[in-house]
Hints:
Elements: H1 15-19, E1 26-29, E2 34-39, H2 45-54, E3 65-67, E4 72-77, E5 80-85, H3 90-102, E6 107-110, E7 115-121, H4 125-130, E8 147-152, E9 155-163, E10 166-172, H5 176-186
Antiparallel strand pairs: 1-7, 2-5, 2-6, 3-4, 4-5, 7-10, 8-9, 9-10
Helix pairs in contact: 2-3
Amino acid sequence: MADTLYRTHPLENRRAALAGLPGGLTAYPEPEFAAVDLRVDPAGPGAEAVGRALGTALPVEPNTWTHTADGQLIWLGPDEWLVTSTTALPEQFEQELGWVVSAFDGAAVDVSAQRTSIRLRGEHARDLLSLGCSIDLRPTAFGQGACAQTHLGQTGVLLLALGAADFRLFVRQSFAAYLADWLVDAAQDVPEGDLT
């Protein structure tokens, strides 16, 4: 008789450590989500069709993101976006978006298994991120609605500013444990008041 395998979150064994950050910081692994890498001409009718399908226009300003009804549209490049959904099934989400853009020489690829995310909140969240990230994280340079593909510590992340002290970090699943450990370790050295 074969054993039953149960899917677990890649950061399941890091939840307690992330929950114990000092200085009023909170971090936790977010639930799994569907994600599609979308390619389409932003100036063409395909972009408009995607906007109608998702209920919001594709962000065309570099390094920005916007909400959809159940996820986010994240600018990755001049003709590339990461589209997330907390309610869609990954295969179905890929098929639906693929059907929309295929008529316009676009592409939609399911990348749901590629990344997981960590939510980081707190008055000193920017200070913590600045210990391992080289981009300008001051609120005037990286405010709500901004995103960046960057490095945090020794791993690549897709960083979203959800609010003044609220961030989402998308990280490849194979580097998720490293990132969680880095956050726990670096939080011990957070300088107070530098960027807040």
